[in-house]
């Protein structure tokens, strides 16, 4: 066989290989690999790469993170996509419940990239009160805040009507100079003031303010209101009165509320939620 004949045969064989099309092989992870011949040699293409995966009829596996904001939505999505190896974690401080729907099986790994997150969102009343927590306010601003949020006040230890009366008194006593504030044996605050208007002739008076009150707040939509005590503090600067309230350990209320929601998820889904966070 001459060299020319051999070259012609090689060309025919190469053309036949290319005309035969690629060979489709299955990789260990279930994806497809195409192997075909070119003039430069054998070429291998992973059909799972983004460049090619988008052209497929459907993805190879479920992936992505879905974020919901209430228990009912979490239960609905979890019930549709979870299996016996799915895992759920709760971060009590962050108000976060994360489900890894394709978590590892006992003997075989899985991708762990299909996730469901329940992100608990604080209610508007909770955000309003916590935003003012430990913040000194002029007496009128303080009084207006109490009046605007009257429906959140609890009747124990001080009736809401009494707190409202104090707020209205502060609004009426804007033209006074406060001279001192004494904490009485009961813990209530006795404020001394003097009128600054000409018509009053400098009349003096006293005002007693309760040292504490309470609010009833639901941190999240999926839990009942909690009674949160608020201690009152005051400051007199240049005759002007400032006040603030200090909520009693709101972080503990948040953690307990998240535990309540976790219990709802466990009951509805028939699972045990682990404390912590899944691997990244």
How would you describe this protein?
By secondary structure, the chain is of the alpha+beta class. It has helices spanning 3-19, 50-53, 71-81, 124-132, 139-148, 160-172, 250-269, and strands at residues 23-26, 32-38, 41-46, 64-68, 87-91, 96-100, 114-119, 137-138, 176-183, 189-195, 204-209, 212-217, 226-237, 240-247, 274-275. The chain folds into three domains: 3-53, no CATH class; 64-119 and 256-275; 124-248, no CATH class. The protein is built from seven helices and 15 strands. The two termini are 64 Å apart. The model has no long low-confidence stretch (mean pLDDT 86).
Task: Based on the model shown, name its key terms.
7 helices; alpha+beta; 3 domains; four-stranded antiparallel β-sheet; five-stranded mixed β-sheet; 280 residues; elongated; single chain; 32% strand
């Amino acid at each position: 066989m001459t060299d020319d004949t051999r070259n012609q045969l090689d060309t025919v064989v190469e053309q036949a290989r290319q005309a035969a099309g690629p060979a489709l092989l299955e990789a260990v992870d279930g994806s497809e690999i195409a192997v075909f011949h070119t003039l430069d040699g054998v070429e291998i293409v992973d059909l799972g790469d983004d460049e090619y995966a988008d052209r497929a009829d459907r993805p190879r596996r479920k992936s992505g993170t879905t974020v919901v904001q209430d228990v009912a939505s979490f239960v609905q999505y979890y019930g549709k996509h979870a299996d016996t190896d799915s895992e759920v974690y709760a971060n009590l401080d962050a108000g976060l419940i994360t489900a890894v729907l394709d978590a590892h099986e006992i003997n075989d790994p899985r991708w762990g990239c299909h996730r469901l997150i329940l992100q608990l969102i604080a209610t508007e009343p909770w955000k309003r009160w916590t935003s003012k927590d430990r913040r000194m306010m002029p007496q009128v601003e303080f009084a207006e805040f109490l009046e605007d949020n009257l429906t959140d006040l609890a009747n124990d230890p001080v009736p809401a009507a009494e707190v409202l009366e104090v707020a209205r008194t502060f609004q009426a006593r804007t033209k006074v100079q406060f001279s001192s504030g004494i904490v009485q044996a009961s813990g209530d605050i006795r404020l001394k003031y003097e009128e600054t208007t000409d018509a009053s002739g400098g009349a003096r008076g006293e005002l007693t303010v309760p040292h504490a009150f309470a609010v009833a707040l639901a941190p999240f939509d999926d839990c009942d209101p909690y009674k949160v005590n608020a201690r009152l503090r005051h400051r007199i600067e240049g005759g002007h009165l400032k006040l603030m309230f200090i909520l009693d350990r709101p972080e503990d209320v948040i953690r307990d509320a998240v535990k309540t929601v976790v219990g709802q998820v466990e009951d509805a889904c028939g699972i045990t939620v682990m404390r912590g966070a899944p691997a990244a």
